[in-house]
């Protein structure tokens, strides 16, 4: 009797959120840098070492960017004794372990890439059927992160069960190594990973590959909604945002919706567009993986990716993704709760002209209705201007630049009870 009472009380104290794949990683969305967006297959040991050094010397590491992820095209196209994966000896003459050791010595972590198929998307040897051997190999090199793609999957997709089973084999193999390895699924939203991946992985891609463009429609990225069957590639920032909002609330501590690597600094968008891009990735709690040349960054690029107040929204301990509260033509409004009763609000203008946008207290605290006190006066801080805008009540109206955002933080809540 007493024992069962103690047990029941102990159970009541357990956190309600079960961590994805129970590996204790990605409590907040992972941050780091990935080779793919800028360099594609043109990677080698020197390039990766230079990037890692720059992540430290530029200060990016201090902002939380701590994973250096080696994407596709690192492999030698032949397994040793038909078993062990090897790195391409011309690109990685010392092998992988010494490179990983060097990066670890800088206080950073290292990630690797493969596919849950017979080949990677770049046509290199991949891991389907070799999960345990490959997981062991990566663990022996000291890898801390696996990005796991979906090419050449031998038709083992098309239902959530098929995808889950295939990705689960690697999840189990990684856990079996005993090394904590962050598991980042990259199946482009196929079969709805937000519904099946949270128990086996730490993040899952939502769409086909990002393209360094704000809103260009592209025949290679035919889907406008998350439930469309052709993820494609060359997806613009607005295309990915519009797909992601529908499943934003599936994100949770330990398991995040991955909107793909960032393009900030790669040159295809304006400063305002990059700011919008970074704002939405931060607020929807996407992993923040830089995809630019970190050895050579403009002041404008740094201003975006080193804004501690915006990063703090992404890494906030409430773990709540912002929610789209309304869409009016080109305008969208988002609201998300943050720790300590504060709230992030985003006014997004995808239109071609600057415009005034208004959010009411009922819009912002919609989920607290009818307990919203509209007369409540609350201090508002602009997270990009890094200054307080003063106190507001009932509503806030701000000028929002073309293809831009205003991202503000409410320093209190209008909830009346
Ligand atoms: C794609 C993936 C990209 C990149 C590429 C490498 O499928 O979405 O992010 O990893 O493969 O070939």
UniProtKB/TrEMBL annotation:
It catalyses: Hydrolysis of terminal, non-reducing alpha-D-galactose residues in alpha-D-galactosides, including galactose oligosaccharides, galactomannans and galactolipids. The keyword Cell inner membrane does not apply. GO terms for molecular function: alpha-galactosidase activity. Pfam families: Melibiase_2, Melibiase_C. GO terms for biological process: melibiose catabolic process. Residues 329-410 form the Alpha galactosidase C-terminal domain. It is an enzyme of class 3 (hydrolase). Keywords: Disulfide bond, Glycosidase, Hydrolase, Signal. Residues 1-20 form the signal peptide. Belongs to the glycosyl hydrolase 27 family. This is Alpha-galactosidase. The lineage of its organism: Eukaryota, Fungi, Fungi incertae sedis, Mucoromycota, Mucoromycotina. The gene is alpha-galactosidase.
């Amino acid at each position: 009797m007493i024992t069962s009472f103690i047990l029941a009380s102990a159970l009541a104290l357990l956190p309600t959120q079960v961590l994805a794949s129970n590996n204790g990683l990605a409590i907040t969305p992972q941050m780091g840098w990935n080779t793919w967006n800028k360099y594609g297959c043109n990677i080698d040991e020197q390039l990766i070492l230079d990037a890692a050094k720059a992540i430290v010397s530029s200060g990016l590491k201090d902002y939380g960017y701590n994973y250096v992820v080696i994407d596709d095209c690192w492999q030698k196209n032949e397994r040793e004794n038909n078993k062990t994966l090897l790195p391409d000896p011309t690109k990685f003459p010392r092998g992988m372990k010494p490179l990983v050791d060097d990066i670890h010595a800088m206080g950073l972590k290292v990630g690797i890439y493969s596919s849950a198929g017979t080949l990677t998307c770049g046509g290199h040897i991949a891991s389907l059927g070799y999960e345990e051997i490959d997981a062991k190999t990566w663990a022996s090199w000291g890898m801390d992160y696996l990005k796991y793609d979906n090419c050449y999957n031998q038709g083992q997709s098309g239902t959530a069960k098929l995808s889950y089973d295939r990705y689960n084999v690697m999840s189990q193999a990684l856990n079996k190594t005993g090394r904590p390895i962050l598991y980042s699924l990259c199946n482009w939203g196929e079969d709805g990973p937000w519904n099946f991946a949270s128990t086996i992985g730490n993040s899952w891609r939502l769409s086909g590959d990002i393209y360094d463009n704000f809103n260009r429609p592209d025949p290679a990225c035919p889907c406008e909604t998350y439930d469309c069957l052709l993820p494609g590639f060359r997806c613009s920032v607005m295309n990915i945002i519009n797909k992601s909002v529908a499943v934003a609330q599936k994100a949770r501590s330990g398991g995040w919706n991955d909107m793909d690597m960032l393009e900030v600094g790669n040159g295809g968008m304006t400063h305002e567009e990059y700011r919008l891009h970074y704002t939405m990735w931060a607020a929807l709690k996407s992993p923040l993986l830089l995809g630019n040349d970190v050895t050579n960054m403009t002041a404008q690029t740094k201003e975006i990716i080193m804004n501690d107040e915006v990063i703090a929204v992404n890494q906030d301990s409430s773990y709540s993704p912002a929610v789209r509260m309304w869409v009016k033509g080109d305008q969208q409004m988002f609201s998300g709760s943050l720790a300590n009763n504060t709230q992030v609000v985003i006014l997004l203008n995808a239109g071609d002209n600057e415009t005034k946008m208004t959010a009411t207290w009922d819009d912002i605290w919609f989920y607290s209705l009818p307990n919203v006190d509209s007369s409540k006066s609350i201090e508002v801080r602009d997270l990009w201007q890094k200054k307080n805008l003063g106190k507001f009540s009932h509503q806030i109206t701000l000028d929002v630049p073309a293809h831009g955002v205003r991202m503000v933080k409410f320093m209190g809540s209008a909830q009346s009870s």
